[in-house]
Write a structure and sequence with these properties.
Blueprint: H1 2-28, E1 29-32, E2 40-47, E3 51-56, E4 60-65, H2 71-83, E5 101-103, E6 110-115, E7 120-124, E8 128-132, H3 138-157, E9 171-176, H4 179-184, E10 193-196, E11 201-205, E12 212-213, E13 218-219, H5 226-237, H6 247-259, E14 262-263, E15 266-268, H7 272-280, E16 291-294, H8 297-300, H9 305-314, H10 318-333, H11 341-351, H12 356-365, H13 373-383, E17 387-390
Parallel strand pairs: 8-9, 9-11, 16-17
Antiparallel strand pairs: 1-2, 2-3, 3-4, 5-15, 6-7, 7-8, 10-11, 12-13, 14-15
Helix pairs in contact: 3-5, 5-6, 6-10, 11-12
Length: 400
């Protein structure tokens, strides 16, 4: 009898808790009025810069773009976002489909300051503040800004919860024509661009992009190395993530963006496989070459920033960046159901303070080992028309 009494007490307490939760849940419900759809009750559970995830009682979760919402609904989402800054941007269990494309809101540029004596010219686009030590024609800066703005729009548009948008300040970009100044600002030797994590600035070395003074004019041949801009501005837009993500994913994600088809101010998310194929083979010396040196995931995923930089300095950088791009693209569009849900869950875990090791085991490996990923990525590469040669180079040694 005593046991029954305890059970009844626990059961009554459970009923109270359930009732309390029901009341709280009911308070979170509101009526949504989408054009062309009968009003319905739902709870807002996640929102990024373009869409909201709603939980509809009895029907599950759904993702609604702002473009389909009433003005009152959009205002509510924005106010909810302000009141709940730590709330999720997406729900990995119910992601929006990948967009067909992402377009820059604007690529307009204006010069905001000119100081020839100090060799300083400043320009602004919608979301970027650009400073140059060389006076550049506004149309030239506009071509750069188109890349910057479109890349930012693409990162926000991805259904991964990486960036909300609505930045409180513009992203700083510094363009330098002198190698010494570029190095002093934190630019990596031999590179055309660098994201300086300490200053939060994107650095651009103009000569490596084909921009240098000519006879009576300025030569412009940046298209050849436009991938540098796409890569580095991805780092800048994802700056808050940089210290929390493993190096292979930081660099791999930037490489995947660099490989994504781009036309002035517009990214296309279709035809990604042939685009990645061509991008990974961009440095081949033989047009018939199909074999790439591949650093296996067991080694690649264990590298910290010092080991990565040491490895890049000790040998060709291409195996590192190519391997990271392949592994990242595999998790983005091939692994699991190919819907990016596992990688989105990984990002969500990191955002909530879960360790990289724990998030990797739970979301990416899911019972597999790093070693077993080698064969899976090799199979993916074969579908791309590539052959991978496993890099047997010993792991890099940290610099003293």
């Amino acid at each position: 009898m005593l046991g029954v009494g305890r059970w009844m007490f626990r059961r009554s307490r459970l009923v109270v808790l359930v009732a309390l939760v029901s009341v709280i849940h009911a308070e979170d419900l509101r009526q949504w009025t989408l054009p062309g759809v009968a009003p319905f009750q739902a709870e807002l559970i996640a929102a990024d810069g373009l869409r909201a995830t709603l939980s509809v009682p009895g029907r599950g979760k759904t993702v609604i773009p702002f473009a389909r919402m009433s003005a009152a609904d959009i205002d509510y989402v924005h106010e909810w976002r302000k009141k709940n800054p730590d709330a999720p941007l997406v729900d990995p269990e119910r992601l929006a489909p990948w967009p067909a494309e992402a377009v820059a809101e604007s690529i307009d540029v204006k010069m905001t300051a000119e100081d020839a004596a100090a060799s300083r010219w400043q320009y602004e686009s919608a979301h970027f503040a650009i400073e140059s030590d060389t006076k550049l024609p506004v149309p030239v800066v506009r071509e750069f800004a188109a890349v910057f703005e479109a890349t930012r729009a693409a990162v926000v548009a991805m259904p991964l919860g990486l960036a909300y948008g609505g930045e409180s300040r513009k992203f700083p970009v510094v363009m330098l024509s002198n190698l010494v100044d570029y190095g002093k600002a934190g630019g990596n030797s031999g590179s055309g661009g660098t994201y300086n994590i300490e200053t939060g600035q994107m650095l651009v070395f103009l000569p490596n992009l084909g921009i240098k003074p000519g006879v009576g004019a300025m030569t412009l041949d940046y298209q050849r190395n436009i991938f540098v801009l796409k890569h580095e501005v991805t780092h800048e837009v994802l700056g808050p993530w940089y210290l929390y993500l493993p190096m292979w994913l930081n660099e791999g994600f930037a490489e995947c963006m660099a490989a994504t088809p781009y036309t002035r101010g517009r990214y296309g998310f279709q035809g990604l496989d042939p685009a990645l194929h061509d991008y990974l083979l961009k440095w081949r010396t033989n047009p018939n070459q199909r074999e790439l040196l591949f650093i296996p995931p067991a080694r690649l995923m264990s590298l910290d920033s010092e080991q990565w930089n040491a490895g890049v300095a000790a040998q060709s950088a291409y195996p590192y960046y190519n391997s990271a791009a392949l592994l990242t693209e595999y998790f983005l569009h091939i692994d699991g159901h190919g819907d990016s849900a596992n990688l989105a869950a990984f990002f969500d875990d990191i955002r909530r303070g879960v360790s990289v090791h724990e998030a990797e085991a739970k979301r990416l490996l899911r019972g597999r080992t790093r070693e077993s990923l080698t064969a899976e990525v090799q199979n993916y590469a074969r579908k791309l028309g590539l052959s991978l040669k496993i890099d047997e180079t010993p792991p890099p040694v940290r610099p003293p």
